Every structure is written in structure tokens, then in C-alpha cells.
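Q: Start with the shorter request: fold the first protein.
A: Done. Sequence, then structure:
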Amino acid sequence: MEITKIEQQLKNTARYNIYIDGEFVLGVYDDTLLKYQLRKGDEITAEKLAEIRAYDEYNYGKNVAYKFLSYKPRSIKEVKNKLTYKKISKESVDKIIEHLKKYQFLNDESYAKMYLEQKTNSKGMGKSMVTFKMIDKGIDKEMITKVIDENYPEEKQIEAGKKLIEKYLKKKQKIEDKNELKKKCYQYLFSRGFSYSVIEQILKINEDDK
């Protein structure tokens, strides 16, 4: 097989189209071109072509992951899903994930701590809701339990719930029936992921403050 043409792509000038025996075969990054010193007229074997394809896919996947991570921190599952969506092979995805973990671009425990702090401070989420959301992000259940136990004890849950219910009550000032209001407060806090025992303490503190 012979490389019959190498042309720079118009939309992405860092990539080049490789033609073999007159047919387009693959696109590669400029560093792949340099690494393998690909030139028009070179003879190339199927094995070498497969090696080039795998190397370029790995580099392409790394670039996708770096860009994806540049917007905000992500979990391992989120990065895997992104790479899979971009049609990166499982072998390359696994290598990319290991590379990102090695250089601390990916760390699910650090991500879980950041996510917990963000959601409990800005969104007022209870323990069960933030647990469910972290499971959805692909965080290991044992790790979630560890992070929550160490960083979101009951007193912090009560504090978060108290702030949440104060805002909620301002919107429900027209409700005069105390029992109905208390029921709605229970339902609201429960929907935000707070346990009944924590809700009891939140509402008791709220009553005592009046």
C-alpha cells in the first residue's frame, strides 16, 4: 500500500487527511504525522496503519477529554461517556482514563467532595438527594458514604435545611393553618432529600426561633 496524498483539513488545520492508493483512509493530527514521518509516496503496511490509527485515536481522545474537563470538573463516568459518544474505542478510553487519573486530572473522591460542597451550599440538598445525584455521576457508593460522613454531618444538614425552609416559608405566608403549613414543610424538605429525623430537628429549631 502506498500513501498517495496527504492534505491539511480545512476546518481543523491541526489534522491531515491521509489517502492510500488513491482512497481516503483516515485523518490524523500533525503530531502523529511527525511522529511517524508520513510522506507522500511512502509504502505502508496494514499493521503500521493500525498502529498509527490507535496512536492518533488516543491523542484525539486526550484532546477531547482535556477540553471537556476545561469547562468544569467531571467524574470518571462523565469523561468515559463523553469519549464513548465521540466513538473512541474502549481500549483507547481505558488508556486515556488511566492517563488522566495518573496526572490528577480525574479523581472521583476530590470530585465528590467538590460536588457535595457545591450542591449543599448553593442548592440546599439533603443527604439522600445528593447521594442519588452522585450515584448518577458514577461515584462509587462506598466513596459517597465516606465523603458524606466526613463532610456533611447531621448538624450541617440541619443548617442547610434551616436556610432552605426560611426561604420556603416566605413564599407560603398566606397559609394560615399551622398543621397544613407544617405538612407542606415536611413534604418540601423530604423532596429535597432530608431524612425525617433531620426534618424534625429543622422544624423544631424554626419553631423555637419564632
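Q: Next, the second protein, separately.
A: Sequence, then structure:
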Amino acid sequence: VEASDAEKGLKVSVKDNGPGIDEEGRKKVFDRFSQVGDEAAKSQGTGLGLAISRAIIEAHGGTIGVDSEAGKGSTFWFVI
């Protein structure tokens, strides 16, 4: 977890060493009921967590995103 100054506020990032998310998955990871990854990971969630996070961040005038490559982990971030 990291926090840093950003041009328009504070940027908070959370990085993992997981399998990463391919380009197609990154396009839909914040959509309601969307799940990416292997079947085992999908069976443990509803696909709402990141959609709710996006709604909260955007309601506060912020932005949220993910930087990732398949096989290299992911960094989820938001700026408020």
C-alpha cells in the first residue's frame, strides 16, 4: 500500500504479486457483476466490490483505475 501526492489530490495504490489482469479484463474489472481471473477466484465473489469502490470514489470527485499485465501482478489505485 502506498500513498503519494498527485496533481489533483492524494493517490492511494495497492499492489499485488498475483497473476495480473489482461487488457480485456482491465476494461471490465470495474463493471457491476464482472469477475476476471480463474474460476476458483470467481466463485468467491459477487463482482460488486470494485464497482462499489468506483461509485464511492467518483461520488467524491475522484478517479480509480488499475495498472496490470498478465503474469506480472496488478496495482489498483484511486485519486481523491
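Q: Describe the second briefly.
A: The radius of gyration is 13 Å. The longest helix spans residues 49-59.
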